[in-house]
Design brief:
alpha/beta, TIM Barrel, 7-stranded parallel beta sheet, two-stranded antiparallel sheet, 45% helix, globular
Length: 316
């Protein structure tokens, strides 16, 4: 089987998972964010590390809108069209053409809330939501429609699915607040239901890059064939099996992005990966809890992935 089939097999409960896929993500330097240079760097990383699918880094971040200074200004939020997304879509198209026959090609998709944060900064966004959420909601609606344009263009370019990253429900933001249910979740679900209907492999990423969570319950009904999240939950430390039982789907992760994978030797990385794999659930993809800093040694990533590929489970 090729990499496409091996990854999709993780979703097939009728077959024993004898091969454990693995993938790790990082941002490339700015000179590799656009055009053919971006395509070539993604392919170089994919080939060198041996990872099991191509995950496209998203670098077309929403520009800062200085004119949005108070909540009511969100009514001026512009809707971005294909002229804004064209380069990112062409990168996706190029990667589908170069690698799509051998591996799934997955496009990163930032959530509407995250894009709103890019627009004014996370602190100002939270301030506006707490002061007067209704016009901010209108702005996030406009952002959602912009992202829908991007999603549909990526689908037309041939991507197999999306790595949908969600934020907003962290303990320092809207965890436990009705504002999460009003301002974040409906827009996440609007996009995620669409991609879930049209793609064969989507990853739900509950992102803790800004802060952690003490409750994952609000995300349990989010679509996604695989879930990727941190194993730190407040004062608890979950196991991959706990996450599988919570979300009732395969888990991708197990590796702390700022730990051994970043700072250890290749030998230490191999030992770490073997320990994680020894306790891994039946349906599992080895990966990190979020994007690894770009300073990581690619050799560490290659070793972790090869360890997953070489690992053999004990017979039950």
């Amino acid at each position: 089987m090729n990499k496409r089939e091996l990854v999709l097999q993780v979703l097939d409960e009728s077959k024993q998972q004898t091969y454990i896929p693995a993938a790790f993500f990082l941002h490339f330097d700015a000179q590799f964010h656009r055009g053919q240079a971006a395509i070539d760097k993604h392919l170089e990383y994919f080939r060198y590390t041996g990872m099991d699918f191509v995950k496209i880094q998203y670098e077309t971040v929403f520009p800062v809108r200085e004119e949005i200074r108070k909540p009511e200004d969100w009514l001026q939020m512009p809707q971005y069209g294909m002229d804004f997304y064209q380069d990112q879509v062409e990168i996706a198209r190029g990667l589908v053409q170069a690698a799509g026959k051998e591996a799934l090609v997955i496009q990163t998709l930032y959530s509407p809330f995250m894009c709103a944060g890019h627009t004014v900064g996370g602190e100002r966004l939270m301030q506006h939501l707490l002061e007067n959420p209704q016009p901010v909601i209108k702005g996030i609606e406009i952002i959602t429609e912009s992202l829908r344009t991007f999603v549909r263009a990526c689908l037309a370019a041939g991507v197999d699915g999306f790595y949908h990253s969600t934020q907003g429900g962290e303990t320092s933001r809207l965890e436990g607040s009705a504002l999460f249910d009003e301002c974040v979740k409906p827009f996440d679900l609007s996009l995620m239901h669409e991609i879930n209907e049209k793609c064969q492999f989507n990853i739900l990423h509950v992102c803790d890059y800004v802060d952690g969570y003490s409750d994952l319950t609000p995300f349990l009904d989010y679509p996604g064939d695989v879930v990727n999240c941190s194993l730190k939950l407040g004062e608890q430390h979950l196991t991959p099996q706990h996450v599988v039982e919570l979300f009732r789907r395969p888990f991708m992760g197990g590796v702390e992005r700022l730990g051994t994978i970043l700072n250890g030797s290749p030998e230490e990385v191999q030992a770490m990966a073997e320990q994680i794999l020894s306790d891994a659930p039946e349906r599992f993809i080895l990966g990190a809890d979020c994007t690894i800093p770009s300073s990581v040694n690619w050799e560490n990533i290659r070793v972790a992935i090869q360890t997953a590929h070489d690992y053999r489970r004990s017979n039950p």
